[in-house]
Amino acid sequence: xxxxxxxxxxxxxxxxxxxxxxxxxxxxxxxxxxxxxxxxxxxxxxxxxxxxxxxxxxxxxxxxxxxxxxxxxxxxxxxxxxxxxxxxxxxxxxxxxxxxxxxxxxxxxxxxxxxxxxxxxxxxxxxxxxxxxxxxxxxxxxxxxxxxxxxxxxxxxxxxxxxxxxxxxxxxxxxxxxxxxxxxxxxxxxxxxxxxxx
Length: 198
Prior knowledge:
By secondary structure, the protein is an alpha+beta fold. Among the domains are: 22-57, no CATH class; 107-195, Umud Fragment, subunit A (Ribbon), CATH 2.10.109. The protein has three helices and ten strands, in the order ααβββαβββββββ. The strands form two sheets. An eight-stranded antiparallel β-sheet has the order 1-4-5-10-6-7-8-9. The radius of gyration is 24 Å and the shape is extended. Mean pLDDT is 81; it is low at 1-5.
């Protein structure tokens, strides 16, 4: 009898399990072990992947820089351009500039994210701007940070009122968010640059 019972347990069964590519992420998945300290961040990343799988036109996904940054040196003129009265032109090229060197100090700790909403207009962050985020920088009071609030990403200025942490908006039309104990807050990184199209 025990042989009969054992033959019905374990092993591959025809038609069992999920079809390949049918997960909530729109592709095959695989089980791995990860450090517990990384779980909150990974849950946010997976939540974003679920959103992206549901809506392929989603523009809020996190974008990672290329693993191998290529150099593209562009001439950098010595003179500055006046935003006030015009000044005599100076065509002397001081050196070349690579935007990767300017925007990305630590490639392994950097990611990009597209901004959404108007709560940070006062900080020069507009809808659809690309934010350059460095995870290696300490998120100290006064910095603009990317954080996940209960699994939803937001960009805000980190403030404090007394002992309370506040995520401050840079637009009077939006209220600051006081981080209460019941709010799950994970700070992803510090915004270092904004890429804003004209």
